[in-house]
């Protein structure tokens, strides 16, 4: 049975209050109405409409191909399902890097057309203008540091980030900058747990980890990974809570067999 405080609607202010009282924040990805209905009903705090939809929904190798229009479509589907969770929408690659005016236009489109509650951007000092511009429009911003999948071709690998002192120091500085700019929360992806703990203790805003150890303020996973719908992705940080891929495969196989053998539909299932 899900354990969560009864709250009509999670807000950015409530996430901050959760950090202050030491209550961990639960966060999962969602891309469609049906899945979001289940996750929201279970009591999830935050739903991330991630650009990981590019991988798990569209079959791309990276997150780069997904477009702003596609992200708005997925976010709209999720928002229509939600009664409790805060919905955060990833800004896709190319919609905010290098041009703060374009970043603002993209963020406004997401908020107006999807009904999402906040947006998320990858990066630190290099995108400070875009973050500042978006925040001036009153749009809540979640930051994302560490492994940033939209920069995969720059780094060339999905390995753990910020293991070296120089990169770790930059991450600490970027985390502080994002808070000072006005971000309401920060995601840390695939960094040493000791560094993640340091960031979480240094910041007053919530820090959500994915592969960042237990000493942050909350956790996020890709829902298809934690439910066992995807099989190939097996990082150390992933805990599978179900094997729905196998269950779905078996159910479909039984359906096919029942159709082929004329067992389905039965007389009771006919009009």
Q: How is the largest sheet built, in terms of strand order?
A: 1-2-3-4-5-6-7-8
Q: Label the structural class.
A: alpha/beta
Please report the distance between the alpha carbons of the first and last residues: 39 Å
SSE string, helices as H and strands as E = HEHEHHEHEHEHHEHEEHH
Low-pLDDT stretches: none
| Shape designation | globular
Determine Rg (CA atoms, Å): 20 Å
Would you count the extended β strands for me? 8
Largest sheet: 8 strands, parallel, barrel
Helix content: 40-55%
The whole-number mean of residue pLDDT values reads 94
Number of helices: 11
Strand percentage lies at 5-15%
Essential attributes:
alpha/beta, 41% helix, single chain, Pyrv_kinase-like_dom_sf, eight-stranded parallel barrel, globular, pantothenate biosynthesis, 271 residues, cytoplasm, EC 2.1.2.11
Model description:
This protein is an alpha/beta fold and 271 residues long. It has 11 helices and 8 strands. It has helices spanning 12-21, 33-42, 53-56, 68-79, 100-114, 128-136, 152-155, 165-181, 193-202, 223-226, 244-260; strands at 25-29, 46-49, 86-90, 118-120, 141-146, 185-189, 207-210, 218-221. Helix 9 links the parallel strand 6 and strand 7 (207-210). The model has no long low-confidence stretch (mean pLDDT 94). It catalyses: (6R)-5,10-methylene-5,6,7,8-tetrahydrofolate + 3-methyl-2-oxobutanoate + H2O = 2-dehydropantoate + (6S)-5,6,7,8-tetrahydrofolate.
Provide a short characterization of the protein structure.
The protein is an alpha/beta fold and 271 residues long. It has helices at residues 12-21, 33-42, 53-56, 68-79, 100-114, 128-136, 152-155, 165-181, 193-202, 223-226, 244-260, and strands spanning 25-29, 46-49, 86-90, 118-120, 141-146, 185-189, 207-210, 218-221. The longest helix has 17 residues, at 165-181.
């Amino acid at each position: 049975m899900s354990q969560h405080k009864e709250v009509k609607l999670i807000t950015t202010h409530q996430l901050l209050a959760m950090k202050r009282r030491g209550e961990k924040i639960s966060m999962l990805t969602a891309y469609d109405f049906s899945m979001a209905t289940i996750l929201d009903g279970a009591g999830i705090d935050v739903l991330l409409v991630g650009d990981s939809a590019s991988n798990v929904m569209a079959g791309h190798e990276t997150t780069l191909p997904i477009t702003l229009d596609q992200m708005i479509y997925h976010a709209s589907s999720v928002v229509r399902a939600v009664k409790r969770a805060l919905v955060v929408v990833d800004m896709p690659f190319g919609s905010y890097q290098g041009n703060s005016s374009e970043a603002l236009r993209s963020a406004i489109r997401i908020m107006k057309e999807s009904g999402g509650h906040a947006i998320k951007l990858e990066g630190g000092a290099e995108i400070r203008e875009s973050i500042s511009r978006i925040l001036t429009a009153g749009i809540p911003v979640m930051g994302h540091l560490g492994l940033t999948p939209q920069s995969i071709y720059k780094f060339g690998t999905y390995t753990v980030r910020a293991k070296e002192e120089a990169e770790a120091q930059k991450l600490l500085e970027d985390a502080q900058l994002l808070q000072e700019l006005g971000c309401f929360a920060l995601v840390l992806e695939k960094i040493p747990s000791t560094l993640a703990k340091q960031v979480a203790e240094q910041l007053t805003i919530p820090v959500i980890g994915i592969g960042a150890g237990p000493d942050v303020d909350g956790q996020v996973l890709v829902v298809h990974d934690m439910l066992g719908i995807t099989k190939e992705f097996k990082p150390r940080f992933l805990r599978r809570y179900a094997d729905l891929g196998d269950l779905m495969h078996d159910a479909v196989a039984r359906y096919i067999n029942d159709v082929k053998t004329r067992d389905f539909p039965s007389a009771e299932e006919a009009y």
